[in-house]
Amino acid sequence: MTAISWTDETWNPVRGCSQVSPGCANCYAKHQAARIVRMAKGKPSKYDGLVRMTARGEAAWTGRVDLDPKTLAAPLSWRLPRRIFVNSMSDLFHESLTNEQIAAVFGVMAACPQHTFQILTKRARMREWFAWVDPVGRALLERTPIPLRPRAVIENAALATMTGVDGIPKRRDHAWPLSNVHLGLSVEDQDAADKRIPDLLATPAAVHFLSCEPLLGEIDLRHVQHNREFELDALTGDHGVFRPLAGRGPRVDWVIAGCESGPGARPCDVAWLRSLRDQCASAGVPFFLKQARGPSRENSPGPDGVVRPSVNHGLQSTSKPGGVIELPYLDGAQHAAFPVVGPAE
Predict the structure, then answer these.
(1) 266 is in which domain, residue-wise?
(2) Residue spans of beta strands (DSSP E) within 176-261
(3) pLDDT, tens digit (0-9, with 9 covering 90-100), for 89-102
(4) Dist. CA 307–CA 328, nearest whole Å
(5) Residue 11 falls within a domain, yes or no?
(6) Is 124 contained in some domain?
(7) Rounded to an integer, what distance in angstroms lies between the CA atom of residue 150 and that of residue 25?
(8) Which of 77, 83, 85, 259 has the fewest CB atoms in 10 Å of its CB?
């Protein structure tokens, strides 16, 4: 289980990461990895060589990233359906991983149709990987063909992980893109939204979602401007004025938002949260407010409109250090909606 309110379980088949944007500055994962190394007290740990301490005594990723074979097969033995956050401590589309290693992770997900896998990335490589796994896109990228067709790569990767595991589900999701895999993007401000969202929506997925956490600035998802070439309403799929395209394209199906927490947390204006809430409401897109800073007195409204709900009213909120509230009320209401998907989930 996990304390992350929008998922049921975390699964980390990949270890290690590296910083790519301002949103990474206070990454909880590098601090957690450093803590695991310290707790090992000189004995081997899974994050040895992947995290280091700087001269200022701060945790930092070394940039090395590994596939963890011991963890890779874990979901195959989880019988009850659950939402699974993939790589809460890393990024599945990190540039240090090979295409085949990423395919192995997708193979496990294909072998577990009872689960919903939630992938979050900051990297445009996700679009490149999906193009690679598609025969036409792979040729366009001038990648060296591998002997097996893409679906076979995925299936064989799954079979390889199943060796020696008892009671493995034999069913597989043969649809592509996998109907039980939700592809998400971390965006912290408008600049990140403009740069990354077009790549997300150009990547095939059963569900596209955004994690606007830590939210470091206002984001207008109705006017995403990519390379000054076109404007996109990410919540409807409409293309706009710079280079009009025929019809609507894929849209964002779910938005998660929240402030930064922990040491050195940067401010998050409640107006930014309200804006995302209202944009989603207008477009009929589910909105999940994960966390926000609230008033100092319990059950009393603050000037920012975020309050801690009373016991047994709505979903249970929890207090975190720094005045952060998990699952807060915003202007008198909680927002914990999930995307609605078909029975294939």
Answers:
(1) 181-334
(2) 181-186, 207-212, 224-226, 230-233, 238-239, 254-258
(3) 999 999 999 988 89
(4) 6
(5) no
(6) no
(7) 36
(8) 77
Q: Give Cβ neighbours of residue 142 (< 8 Å, ≥ 6 apart).
A: none
pLDDT one-digit tens code per residue, 131-185: 888 765 444 443 333 333 455 555 565 555 544 344 444 455 557 788 999 999 9
* Angle ∠(275,277,278) on CA atoms, nearest 5: 65
- Report which of 65, 162, 144 is spatially closest to residue 104, judged by C-alpha positions: 162
Of 32, 47, 64, the residue that ends a domain is 64
Domain boundary, last residue among 28, 43, 64: 64
188 and 325 in a single domain? The answer is yes
Integer Cα distance of 165 and 162 in angstroms = 6
Calpha distance 26→191 (Å, rounded): 18
Q: Could you tell me if 185 and 326 lie in one domain?
A: yes
Mean pLDDT check: name the lowest of 2-6, 116-120, 340-344. Answer: 340-344
Q: Is residue 316 part of a domain?
A: yes
Sorting pLDDT into bands at 50, 70 and 90, what band is 34?
Answer: confident
- Tokens 């150009």 appear where? 202
Q: How far apart are CA 189 and CA 206, in angstroms?
A: 25
- Model pLDDT, residue 53: 86
Q: Which residues have C-beta within 8 Å of that of residue 56, sequence separation ≥ 6?
A: none
φ, ψ (nearest 5 deg) of residue 210 = -120, 140
Q: Give the count of domains, the chain.
A: 2
For residue 250, is the peptide bond before it cis, meaning its omega torsion is within 30 degrees of 0?
no
Tokens (6 digits) for 54: 């700087």
pLDDT tens by residue, 261-307: 988 899 999 999 999 999 999 999 999 999 998 764 444 444 455 55
Contacts of 295 (CB under 8 A, 6+ apart): 301, 302, 303, 304, 306, 307, 308
How far from the centroid of its chain's Cα atoms is residue 102's Cα?
15
- CA pair distance 196, 152, nearest whole angstrom: 30
Question: Burial, 137: exposed, middle or buried (Cβ in 10 Å; 0-12, 13-18, 19+)?
Answer: middle
Q: Is residue 28 assigned to a domain? A: yes
